[in-house]
Structures are given as structure tokens and as C-alpha cells.
Specification:
mainly beta, Complement Module, domain 1, globular
């Protein structure tokens, strides 16, 4: 994975009174795109915005 694909989340974007869980606005994760891929435990998951504006996470 190239460095340009790694999201650097500014601490100002994380709003939480506790250490966990954190809140990250979807705009920060998705940027201008309608979908991203998340790697977890060796598997790739797609997070996308539907036409109705809902979030869908699929494997």
C-alpha cells in the first residue's frame, strides 16, 4: 500500500470524551469518493454511500 493511500486523521476530527470508542465523520473517511476499502484481519471490506445517503459495509 502506498503512502498516498494511508489516511492521516487529524486529532481535531476525532471527537470523544473517552479513549474508546472514537467518532470519525464519514466525510473524513470517504473524502470526495463514494466508497473506500478497509483492510481488517487480512480481509478487504467495502464501505460505500448508497443513492439514499446510507452507509453500507460489505465483505
Amino acid at each position: 500500500m502506498s503512502e498516498k493511500n494511508i489516511l492521516d486523521i487529524d486529532s481535531k476530527c476525532i471527537r470523544s470524551t473517552q479513549i474508546f470508542p472514537i467518532t470519525i465523520p464519514s466525510e473524513i473517511l470517504l473524502g470526495r469518493t463514494k466508497q473506500i476499502f478497509i483492510l481488517h484481519d487480512g480481509h478487504s471490506y467495502q464501505l460505500r454511500i448508497t443513492k439514499l445517503g446510507k452507509l453500507i459495509l460489505t465483505k
